[in-house]
């Protein structure tokens, strides 16, 4: 069965343009680790079989191990039998930036996609740069507001001439769904409240 | 708030028996859809203690991730809208309604900084009692307090939504679902005093199909509800005239032979010389009073009973023709011919096949209804099966919210208008 699972997972990644890495199988404690490369990133899959999960606390241990692998690749997945996956809170997996693969004899399914951890770090650097840029922009706008408010003060002193302009209200919805078009109920319902008075 | 704002942020919510269809006007022709159910995970489970406490209740597309392979699954998976009515004290069902409503509204929260809540139009069964309206408004008020997502709300009966979506201002809507059937005359307003409820739906046709399977030697399969429903949908036929259809089918068993292979299994159901029984299934939906059904009642098949649910009386055995006449006759005489002229059939219990080669004796639901009304002496009728039954209630909600003026306040007497939770 273990070989079957490995093959299913390998097929899953091959279909997504990933290739097994050299030295692609390791064993970490009870769990088998598979390595894949593709799309410019490295992926680790930590597989826990039903046999591995027989002991109390073993599911927790499998999750902890998967978390510990995070520094070693761009993405880390934990693969669990469907029965065990159903009792795992997917939020924990998401919070840890792990991915979750569910498998049974019929195939493998990606329940939670993994987050690319290295690109996440790059994202943080980008965000810091963006915050700095926004701060500069804010200062510039503050100065602009100051100059505009002094301009307003100046304009207030001049008496304006008011001219009424008829504004045509555009339809709120650009493309009207078919059930609203030529529907006699629109007219009927829009009279609600008026007909009673 | 302006009329323009209301039009932009009208939100439809159709609480169907199986699915919750929801979304703002911006969805276009199709709303979002999730199953109308909630899952209460077993928080005492050892695995949850190990990996962390899950939510109290799970709704929406995440449910399959939480399901446990346990015997008590049925009691933990709650479908709140069975038969269109939720009991006042059914706390778990109300909890599910709250969660799916919040889920629906939150998933469409716009990024627009001017957004200050939706104008929500909810649609409920026409037999939903007044306390359900109160409870729904409480839910919307609570969600608005917590998340400022509901500027105003209103509730309309589902048959009215169907009539609105189909652009018919005067008609009778016959809505038949799994558990019951509602007859609702409409003339610019739903005529509430003439609404009639029938305690019979697709579930009763399933019960008869199970009896037929037992009689034909498939007693072991008759216990599987999903399979029975599949058999019903695939072999059931609506007869033009039951006695004549049974006679013709007995004379020509090969032409009417009902053989059904269950996809992906080795099971094949063949009614062989009893294939005439397929007509009983369709007839029972429309008219359970035919004497042929007496033998099934005598053998223990439950007879659809007159019951009271909440404040509403549901008839058991009324045929659909009688029910429409009885309901229409509660309306003003001048209006009655106009109501008979447009009858809309809605709901899965009217989806019957009428194969071309059996057309001499097997008919569709609309023709059957016309025949039943003919028997009642009503001839100038036009019965239509509604198109797009899945989303028509949601569409009706959107039109209603779009058109009803923003300043038309809710009235408990008229049971319409906008209920606002803040100034």
Structure description:
The complex is a heterodimer of chains A (197) and B (423). Chain A is an alpha/beta fold and 197 residues long. Chain A folds into 2 domains: 114 residues, Trna Endonuclease, Chain: A, domain 1; 39 residues. Chain A has a 6-stranded mixed β-sheet with strand order 1-2-3-4-5-6, with helices on both faces. In chain A, a hairpin with a 2-residue loop joins strand 2 and strand 3. The radius of gyration of chain A is 30 Å and the shape is flat. The N and C termini of chain A lie far apart (77 Å). About 6% of the residues of chain A have low confidence. By secondary structure, chain B is an alpha+beta fold. Chain B folds into 3 domains: 148 residues, ATPase, nucleotide binding domain (Nucleotidyltransferase, domain 5, 2-Layer Sandwich); 41 residues, no CATH class; 189 residues, Nucleotidyltransferase, domain 5. Helices cover 35% and strands 19% of the residues of chain B. Chain B is built from 16 helices and 21 strands. In chain B, strands 9, 10, 11, 12, 16, 17, 18 and 20 form an 8-stranded mixed β-sheet that branches. Chain B is globular. Classes of the chains: A alpha/beta (197), B alpha+beta (423). At the A-B interface, helix 2, helix 3, helix 4 and helix 6 of A face helix 1, helix 2, helix 3, helix 7 and helix 16 of B.
